[in-house]
Amino acid sequence: DGEPMESERHVIQPQLLKDPLKLYWQGRNFYIGINMFVYFSQKRIKNQDFRGPDYFIALDVDPRERKSWVVWQEEKGPDLVIEFFSETTMDTDKNLKKEIYQDKLKVQEYYWFDPFTKELAGFHLVNGKYQQITPNAKGQLNSEKTGLALVKWQGIYEDIEAVWLRWASLEGELLPTKAEHLLLERNKLAFEKEQESQRANKLAQRLKDLGVNPEDIS
């Protein structure tokens, strides 16, 4: 909302939710905004009725670059919003913004997360009013709009060890970052190479047991 982010962790956290989702949803039409103004004035003017969500997703839209999200031009508002609050923003995020997202923008799902206290809550719109999303047995919040889950993950990201909010499958498997994806690919290739080597060694041993020299086989 025009105010600077309160900590390095507040700056980094939205990106951890954006990059893996973009990688996972390649080829799908959607848009993710970070700390971007959303204009929703019924009079279609930009000097009133606007907010700057820390993170939002709009589904089934052109993924082109934008400077801001203008509801009357896009013909829809965000489908999902996440705010990362602190002591100074907590009251606004829990009350004023929640009311705006519910009554004005009619955001289908609203979540908040405190990167330091680790407080996490989610709400979905039911008959025009927010109903709290109950965590499942794994403690994750399932999102109907994305078909994914929001989970708290203890780990190191951008050289900071903390509890981070991340997207995961409904089974709890984390959506990998680019670095994690590359590591998984390297490990997969290494595993496949090792398997091929083991198969070759077994074949050579089998031929040797049969009295056949593998080098004699063209």
Features:
six-stranded mixed sheet; elongated; alpha+beta; 5 helices; 218 residues; 31% helix
**Helix content estimate:** 25-40%
Characterize the biggest β-sheet. Answer: 6 strands, mixed
Kindly estimate the percentage of residues that lie in beta strands according to DSSP: 25-35%
The shape is elongated
Output the radius of gyration: 24 Å
End-to-end gap: 71 Å
Structural class: alpha+beta
Got a strand count? 12
Mean pLDDT: 89
- Low-pLDDT windows of residues: none
Helix and strand element order: HEEEEEHEHHEEEEEEH
Number of alpha- plus pi-helical segments: 5
Placed side by side, the strands forming the largest sheet appear as 1-4-6-7-8-9
Task: Describe this protein's structure.
The protein is an alpha+beta fold and 218 residues long. It is built from 5 helices and 12 strands. The strands form 3 sheets. It has a 6-stranded mixed β-sheet. It has a 3-stranded mixed β-sheet with strand order 3-2-5. The model has no long low-confidence stretch (mean pLDDT 89).
